[in-house]
Design brief:
By secondary structure, the protein is mainly alpha-helical. It has 21 helices and six strands. A hairpin with a 2-residue loop joins β5 (about 435) and β6.
Length: about 475
């Protein structure tokens, strides 16, 4: 599964500044000709499996990425550049560059699979449904990757006519198709939704968090709408969440919080996560989780207090050894739900991101109910408490004492953070979306930091901007 299906081909004279390590959008990537690589059902399955391998092969598409977002939210202080949102094109931040290239490698692998499958006649597959299921899986991955490219490198918060969307690629990279322009924000969203909605029609039910499922894609579709908040989005998102809750497949809440994190990519509560395979040295694929959480163990004071007051604290935080071989030291209050034992004592513990959990559906439903009917405090609160009462170990007290809409929104935001801390992008978006005392939580948590909405995304990497013979416009203020 970890085999990379593509490698970068250098074209040194064409792009003088480029090298074999440059970005996907600067250089074509091909290890094989599509005509010869996907010839039957088995090789079509292999091509789709290759997308997962490409996704996992980039160590920056999990904890690294989500840790940076938690810094931006003011929840964690691992990187001052992300806390202050001081990133610029001229900064040449390696994390930003690696996330950019990593997602485009995933897009390219998905395009290779889609082109190969489409080239085959239906007679090469057990049925037309089997062909569509593979196409759905590949398109789901492409949509998922492009959504993250928009969230990280585009003005996801802008209106449809904004020019600061993604560089959209629907063909395997070749020298003839590298220099593509950015599409608008509206076009970006529509192209992503086209892929997600196709997948919703043909993708199979959830059986394991190691593979994409219709439940996961519908949940990500709902999250897209919740984050975007255009007219009618909340109602559509609520319908999608209700649909997944009504037809969860094999998804289920873990009754013991410890099982959720010990089982990791085998947990029945996890919809999709980064399955690192059956190899060795897992910790090197999740540096932030297996290393960074030890040396930057504290979270913003208010967040830390929330965590310590929650019944799950002894199950998600604990004592752990340093990840360094030379440092025979232990600390308390390490986020062991993700750090596990660290890379020294637990090199092959199950380090994974929790891209979407069943629990998040209850949180989304609570928020959507609260936003679509602000006068109703009862129904949203019931969803919060469904989540909390799902866990037997530990037993959790219900949320009570809510008498105003603002108190309800504060309670939902708090539950997002405590439940999903460091697991995925949701705490960042919640910190932008929820307000307290008349301002977004991201400003409440970072009162001394001056920033604007333009810094809610990252700059397109400098090497990408330079490589384009037809100039692409950088995100405003991030030049």
């Amino acid at each position: 599964m970890k085999k990379r299906y593509i490698f970068t081909i250098c074209a040194g004279m064409m792009l003088a500044a480029a090298s074999c390590d440059d970005f996907l959008t600067e250089m074509p990537v091909n290890e094989y000709t599509l005509e010869n690589s996907v010839t039957d059902y088995k090789t079509a399955q292999n091509a789709v499996n290759g997308i997962y391998g490409e996704y996992v092969s980039s160590s920056n598409l999990g904890g690294y990425m989500y840790g940076a977002l938690h810094c931006m939210a003011g929840i964690w202080d691992y990187s001052n550049e992300f806390v202050t949102m001081g990133y610029k094109q001229s900064s040449n931040n390696s994390t930003i560059s690696s996330v950019w290239s990593g997602w485009y490698y995933v897009v390219n692998a998905a395009n290779a699979a889609i082109e190969g499958i489409n080239r085959l006649g239906d007679d090469k597959f057990p049925s037309a449904d089997a062909k569509n299921a593979l196409l759905a899986e590949a398109r789901a991955f492409r949509g998922y990757a492009n959504l993250h490219l928009l969230w990280f490198f585009g003005h996801w918060f802008d209106s449809a006519d904004s020019p600061y969307g993604i560089i959209y690629r629907d063909k395997t990279s070749e020298l003839t198709n590298l220099m593509l322009p950015r599409v608008s924000v509206g076009e970006s969203y529509q192209l992503i939704l086209d892929d997600l909605e196709f997948a919703e029609n043909y993708l199979g039910d959830y059986t394991s968090p190691r593979k994409l499922s219709v439940q996961f894609i519908k949940s990500m579709h709902a999250k897209l709408l919740l984050v975007r908040n255009w007219e009618g989005d909340y109602a559509k998102a609520l319908a999608l969440v209700n649909d997944v809750l009504a037809k969860p497949g094999a998804l289920a809440m873990e009754t013991n919080v410890s099982d959720l994190y010990e089982n990791a990519w085998d947990s029945k509560e996890l919809m999709f996560g980064r399955y690192l395979g059956d190899g060795t040295n897992y910790s090197y694929s999740e540096f932030t989780y297996s290393y960074g959480l030890y040396f930057n163990e504290d979270f913003t004071e208010e967040i830390q207090t929330w965590m310590e007051e929650d019944e799950r604290f002894p199950y998600t935080f604990g004592n752990a050894r340093s990840p360094e071989t030379w440092q025979d030291q232990r600390k308390d209050n390490i986020l062991t739900k993700l750090y596990h034992r660290g890379r020294y004592e637990g090199m092959n513990d199950k380090y994974t991101s929790y891209n979407m959990r069943y629990a998040e559906l209850y949180l989304m439903k609570a928020e959507l109910l609260a936003r679509t009917n602000p006068s109703d405090l009862t129904a949203p609160l019931a969803e919060l408490n469904k989540l909390r009462e799902s866990y037997v170990t530990p037993a959790m007290a219900p949320v009570t004492g809510i008498s105003t809409h603002q108190q309800l929104m504060d309670a939902i935001y708090k539950e997002y953070i405590v439940t999903l801390l460091m697991e995925n992008e949701t705490p960042w978006f919640a910190s932008v979306r929820f307000e307290h005392d008349g301002q977004p939580w991201v400003k409440v948590l970072k009162p001394g930091v001056d920033f604007s909405q333009n810094q809610y995304c990252w700059p397109i990497p400098d090497a990408e901007i330079i490589a384009h013979s037809n100039p692409i416009e950088q995100n405003p203020g991030l030049e």
